[in-house]
Structures are given as C-alpha cells and as structure tokens.
Target: Outer membrane protein beta-barrel domain-containing protein
Amino acid sequence: MRIIFIIILLSVFGHAVGQVSPDPSPGKKVFVSSGLGFGFPVGDINQALSPKVSNILGLNIPLSSDRYFLYPVVDFLRFSYDEVVDNPDSEFRLQNGSLNMYGLSIMPGINQFLGSLRLYAYAGPSLQLIYEPYIVVDISAGQADIKKTSSWTAGLRGGMGAHYRMGDFYLFVESSYVRNFRETQGSDLSVVTLHGGLKTDVTMLIDKIF
Model:
C-alpha cells in the first residue's frame, strides 16, 4: 500500500516540478521530507485509539512565487485499537489491536523566511484509506482470527511547520490537524499529528533529470 501512495506522490511531483527555477533561491528549492512522530486522536475517539509511532513522506514543490508552494504528503498513521462498539460481524470485542490510516493530501502552502529559518502553513483535501481490525472467534475449533476491514474516505488536512538549515542538513518539525468524514467506533476520527525529521534538497538532482 505504501508503494501505491509513493507512486501517486511522484506522479504529482512530475507534473509540478516544471516550475522549479534553474538557480534556486531559498524559496525555489525542492525538498523531500521524511519524518517520525505520532498522531494523537482528538475527542471521543481517544477511547478507542491511542498513538503509536507513525511516519510521513512529503515533497515541497516551489511555485512561481517564493511565498507559495505545493505540498503533497503521504501519512502512515498507526494507532493502538480497542473496540468500544459492538461489531455485527463478531460476538467479541477486540482489545490491543492496531488500526492503520494511510492518507494522501495535496495542499497549497505559504512560506515565511527568517534567515535560515523557514516557517510555513498549508491546508487542503485528503484521501484516506483506513484498515480497522476485528476479531472472529470459532469456539468449537478453539481459535480466534483477527481480520481487517478497509474503507476509503475523503478528508481535510491542514497545519504548520518550520525547518532550519544546519550546514548541509535541514531539520523540520510539523503539526497538522487531520479530519475525515467517516465515523470509527461511533465517533468522528480527528487526529492532531506531530512529526519531526530531515528534509533533503533535491533541486540539483531534479535539474539534471528534467
């Protein structure tokens, strides 16, 4: 599943990269970002979900103005999962399971440059795939199987971040609010994410390829 999202991400990148300047200023650089962090459920859903280590993969694609950029992001969010609502397909409730949420967001963003520090904000639509587990128990056979249902849903993602240049490295931290339009365990699924990691300047590589 991650491979599918990455292919889509690269396709978006290929269409937008033509706007990159051949001699980039700080606002004209193309970055690949990869980070680790957590997604924190918000509201009643936190009775069923709790955060696990998650990661994101994204691209900062500059537009014609230094102040604006396009930000495709893939979220790989993981949560500990306890069923709190009866499942019609099972007589038992699953505890200590794992729910996965994959999201592809394509968001316009705005920059603010302060020397080596870059502040930015972004917001846009999201397409999310959710894998929700449940347990099926065969008492006569003395066994239990964990199965998963999958569902697609539209959503929204918006947030802000900062990255700072330290020599050849770019460190970044981001926080986002993710919301979809499908209930999970009887509650709206809203998540506040917090991730940090490294960004890689791939502008020269892109110039050579294109």
Q: What stands out?
A: The mean pLDDT is 86. The beta strands are 31-42, 49-51, 53-62, 68-81, 97-114, 117-138, 143-166, 169-184, 187-201.
